[in-house]
């Protein structure tokens, strides 16, 4: 597997503009002769599909939900970064680049990260032009807030529903292009496989979730915008339907999978409450701006939290990290929460929770100010828990949230399979070993609005506008997908899909979650094949394949998670260092911080499929630091 | 807790459908309504039955995918709450709960509790956008917007497109949904140039999809999980009237050949 990053040979701040100026173009008259498939309609997928369609390409857009607007980007709450420096607090493209690289613990490509920071300002302009109602100040100017891990205020927001508004903006552009006939929308339609002809991605196989029909679609390029794989943990902040299938199928067709063990655990989710818990709900990280995180200082505390005096409260983040306090990066906050709970200081059911307290903020800023900032989040919390954050501290606990790993892509966002692109959360490119708050939406929209529409032209311009819709590889793909569906339906065992998924989740959370160790990962690698066998021998998928069948959908996705989880554990084992979200028990500083190994691990690990039952091959892309030398992250002083 | 669930079963859009009753036991009050249905489905699967099909995705009240009428109310008895954020502690132990799909001509049943809401997407496609291509745009602060206006636009834009308003309306009208988008974009300077076309085109599409007319019952607002205000229907009516009274010439014009 050749890993050519295609990073342009130019100074960092001129890289993107130089690259753009030298890319080959497809002329406006020829664009409609090219057909592009976009899988997924979240921020990356919707913005890419609408942007390419508006340029004149013919786009087929796919989502498994009943409407593109329901993709899980809709649930992003807090905000989106943009290096506008509206607050005059010293922000700049360089500083956003610096924060992203440092936050990612120096495991991302400098060129990609710089480009992300550079186009961040265009995204805000684009969204406002679409009618996204960002928060404004009294004078009518855009408002900003600060977000975890940084010392400037550069985050733009719409109450706690920024993702919803940005996605509705992107989907409105998609709707317009659908009406104009440039996009053909395929809703309730799930990708089952990717078709490679003569070494190039030329189409996909899908199942119509209503009729069960399995079909092929051909194109000149395929763009995956299928999101992340946090649902490997069963309980995560992702939507129920989020899955690894599209990227996993791509991997099995030759696309390298990069850094699968990099999974961000978000520090502020509502703790799980019972055995039927189906997902974890995130509370926006922006709450950490005003809320103070603490646990009782002594084990066995039984008093009501409000009556615990100051001296008996352990504000562990403020004590351990005086400069950043409650605003330390996500992995640091998550790890510390687990740490205090492991010491027996946790609160709530099973002691798996810590307090996030607004008492002092309400006292300082007044009820109205706090309400203006967080009212809808407070409401959400009370709705779920039946407790009011106005009266008693919230309880929070870390939850799997975002996956930095994904398909390996070059500077043009193309995977190792020519013609197969990956954008948004489905690629690995910009966040290194840990993503900065409010940067996910920024990356999705940077990829979709500004990068892929340009880079895909360079690829397409080198290829004919030939039609492969009659190619036997497509019929073969349909047949194989049908066989897999039949196989799932034929198992007819005794276990519900849900049960096995829950057990997979627990295993991965225990052994490949917040803290990993060789012993734990070896154990997981022993257990996973057994669980997979149990699935293929004893699961029961009710109903038929010729109807809407949600158990069948879930079973297909779980089958892929059961394979994928093994590569994830292998990656965690192979990365013999700690960095960002990936904390190996064996590699910590005396203070319990992640200890990187820049000598031998300053790289991207990329896994290549070697066929069923064979161990995948591991390749490395070396990372080069020209602008910013890696330093030990230090949020203490 | 224990519940008797009377749920609508319908194999496909052609089937006539009927209610079936099931019992679920050992449910804690902190279980969400959908998790209770998950438990029912696991029970059905293990006993050789067919699980109940229902839509859900984000399960945090924002994707708008979940859609069921619970005891006669869209998204159930708790105001401003989607089904996925409705918890069993709001029901009496031992209660019988009736669960049905959205019922509207424009939302045909796909299976059990799942309906086809693509009519909503077509209304959006008819004009729920500002025409902008991707690329460099003006500096946003060059067009100041009063915070009150931005907030009101956001109130309207908060619609999650679930369709509860249609399910709640005795006339199955989609006015609240349509008006939310017309108002969101109509309130902002960015939406101004296309306002006439937008309201006319969206209303035309809405009527063509078979939704009923608005008769001011107000049930839409009462059952909307995002509390979208009925005042936006007033705004839509005003926009519609103005657009009809004003010049109807094609605003886009045509470029004549040179």
Summarize this, please?
The complex is a heterodimer of chains A (637) and B (258). With 637 residues, chain A is of the alpha+beta class.
Features:
heterodimer; A: 637 residues; alpha+beta; Flavocytochrome C3, Chain A, domain 1; Methane Monooxygenase Hydroxylase, Chain G, domain 1; five-stranded parallel β-sheet; 36% helix; B: 258 residues; Ubiquitin-like (UB roll); Fumarate Reductase Iron-sulfur Protein, Chain B, domain 2; 2 domains; five-stranded mixed β-sheet; 7 strands; 33% helix
Count interface residues per chain for the largest interface. Answer: A-B, 85 and 82 residues
| Strand order in the largest sheet of chain A | 6-2-1-10-18
Overall body shape of chain A:
globular
Helix content of chain A: 25-40%
The overall average pLDDT of chain A, rounded, is: 95
Tell me the radius of gyration of chain A.
24 Å
Full CATH superfamily name of the largest domain in chain B: Alpha-helical ferredoxin
Secondary structure category of chain A: alpha+beta
Q: What is the correct CATH architecture of the domain at 472-622 in chain A?
A: Up-down Bundle
Q: Count of DSSP E strands of chain B?
A: 7
Q: Can you offer a commentary on this structure?
A:
- The complex is a heterodimer of chains A (637) and B (258).
- Chain A contains 16 helices and 22 strands.
- Chain A is an alpha+beta fold.
- In chain A, a hairpin with a 6-residue loop joins strand 4 and strand 5 (153-156).
- Chain B has 258 residues and is an alpha+beta fold.
- Chain B folds into 2 domains: 3-111, Ubiquitin-like (UB roll) (Roll), CATH 3.10.20.30; 117-245, Fumarate Reductase Iron-sulfur Protein, Chain B, domain 2 (Orthogonal Bundle).
- In chain B, strand 1 (3-9) and strand 2 form a beta hairpin.
- The mean pLDDT of chain B is 95.
- Chains A and B meet through helix 3, helix 5, helix 6, helix 11 and helix 12 of A and helix 1, helix 2 and helix 3 of B.
């Amino acid at each position: 597997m050749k890993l050519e990053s295609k990073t342009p040979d130019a100074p960092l701040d001129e890289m993107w503009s130089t690259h753009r100026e030298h890319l080959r173009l497809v002329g406006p008259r020829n664009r409609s002769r090219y057909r592009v498939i976009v899988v997924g309609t979240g921020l990356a997928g919707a913005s890419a599909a609408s942007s390419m369609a508006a340029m004149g390409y013919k786009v087929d857009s796919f989502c498994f939900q009943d409407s593109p607007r329901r993709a899980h980007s809709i649930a992003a709450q807090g905000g989106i970064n943009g290096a506008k420096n509206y607050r005059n607090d010293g922000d700049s493209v360089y500083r956003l680049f610096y924060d992203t690289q440092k936050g990612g613990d120096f495991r991302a490509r400098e060129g990609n990260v710089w480009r992300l920071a550079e186009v961040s300002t265009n995204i805000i302009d684009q969204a406002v032009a679409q009618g996204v109602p960002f928060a404004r100040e009294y004078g009518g100017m855009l408002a900003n807030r600060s977000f975890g891990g940084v010392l400037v205020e550069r985050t733009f927001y719409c109450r706690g529903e920024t993702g919803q508004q940005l996605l509705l903006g992107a989907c409105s552009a998609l709707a317009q292009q659908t009406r104009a006939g440039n996009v053909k929308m395929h809703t309730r339609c799930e990708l089952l496989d990717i078709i490679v002809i003569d070494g190039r991605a030329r189409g996909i196989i899908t199942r119509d979730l209503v009729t069960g029909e399995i079909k092929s679609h051909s194109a000149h390029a395929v763009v995956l915008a299928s999101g992340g794989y946090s649902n490997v943990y069963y309980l995560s902040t992702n939507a129920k339907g989020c899955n690894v299938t599209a990227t996993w199928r791509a991997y099995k067709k030759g696309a390298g999978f990069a850094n699968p063990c990099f999974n961000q655990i978000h520090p502020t989710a509502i703790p799980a409450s019972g055995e039927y818990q189906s997902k974890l709900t995130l509370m926006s990280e922006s709450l950490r701006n005003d809320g103070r995180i603490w646990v009782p200082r002594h084990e066995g505390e039984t008093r009501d939290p409000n009556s615990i005096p100051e001296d008996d409260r352990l504000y562990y983040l403020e004590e351990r990290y005086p400069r950043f306090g409650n605003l330390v990066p996500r992995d640091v906050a998550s790890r510390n929460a687990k740490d205090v709970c492991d010491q027996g200081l946790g609160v709530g059911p099973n002691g798996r929770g810590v307090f996030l307290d607004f008492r002092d903020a309400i006292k300082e800023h007044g009820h109205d100010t706090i309400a203006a900032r967080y009212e809808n989040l407070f409401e959400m919390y009370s709705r779920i828990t039946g407790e009011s954050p106005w009266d008693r501290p919230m309880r929070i606990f870390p939850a799997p949230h975002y996956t930095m790993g994904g398909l390996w892509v070059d500077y043009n966002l193309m995977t190792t399979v020519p013609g197969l692109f990956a954008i948004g959360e489905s690629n690995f490119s910009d966040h290194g070993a840990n993503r900065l708050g409010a940067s996910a939406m920024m990356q999705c929209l940077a990829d979709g609005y500004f990068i892929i529409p340009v880079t895909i032209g360079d690829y397409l311009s080198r290829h004919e506008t030939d039609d492969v819709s009659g190619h036997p590889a497509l019929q073969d793909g349909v047949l194989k997908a049908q066989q897999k569906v039949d196989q799932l339906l034929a198992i007819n065992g005794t276990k519900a899909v849900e049960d096995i998924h829950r057990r997979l989740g627990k295993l991965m959370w225990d052994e490949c979650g917040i803290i990993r160790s060789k012993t734990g990962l070896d154990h997981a690698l022993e257990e996973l094949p057994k669980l997979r066998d149990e699935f293929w021998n004893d699961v029961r998928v009710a109903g038929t394949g010729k109807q809407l069948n949600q158990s069948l959908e879930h079973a297909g996705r779980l089958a892929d998670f059961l394979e994928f989880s093994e590569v994830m554990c292998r990656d965690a084992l192979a990365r013999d260092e700690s960095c960002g979200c990936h904390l190996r028990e064996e590699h910590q500083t005396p203070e319990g911080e992640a200890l990187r190994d820049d000598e031998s691990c300053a790289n991207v690990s990329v896994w290549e499929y070697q066929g069923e039952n064979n161990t995948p091959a591991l390749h490395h892309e070396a990372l080069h630091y020209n602008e910013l030398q890696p330093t030990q992250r230090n949020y203490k002083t | 807790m224990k519940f008797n669930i009377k749920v609508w079963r319908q194999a496909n859009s052609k089937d006539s459908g009927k209610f079936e009753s099931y019992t679920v036991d050992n449910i804690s009050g902190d279980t969400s309504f959908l998790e209770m249905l998950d438990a029912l489905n696991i029970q059905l699967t293990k006993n050789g039955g067919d699980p109940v099909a229902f839509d859900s995705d984000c399960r945090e009240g924002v994707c708008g995918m979940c859609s069921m009428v619970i005891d006669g109310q869209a998204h159930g008895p708790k105001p401003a709450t989607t089904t996925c954020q409705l918890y069993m502690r709001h029901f009496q132990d031992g209660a019988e709960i009736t669960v049905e799909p959205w019922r509207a001509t424009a939302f045909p049943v796909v299976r059990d509790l799942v309906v086809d809401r693509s009519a909503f997407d077509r209304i959006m496609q008819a004009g729920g956008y500002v025409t902008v291509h991707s690329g460099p745009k003006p500096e946003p602060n060059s067009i100041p917007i009063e915070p009150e206006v931005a907030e009101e636009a956001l109130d309207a834009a908060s619609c999650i497109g679930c369709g509860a308003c249609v399910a709640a309306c005795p006339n199955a009208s989609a006015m609240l949904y349509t008006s939310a988008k017309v108002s969101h974009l109509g309130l902002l300077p960015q939406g101004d140039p296309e306002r006439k076309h937008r309201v006319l085109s969206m209303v035309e599409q809405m009527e063509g999809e078979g939704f009923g007319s608005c008769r001011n019952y107000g049930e839409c607002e009462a059952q909307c999980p995002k509390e979208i205000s009925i005042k936006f229907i007033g705004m839509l009516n005003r926009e519609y009237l103005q657009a009809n009274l004003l010049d109807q010439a094609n605003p886009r014009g045509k470029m004549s050949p040179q």
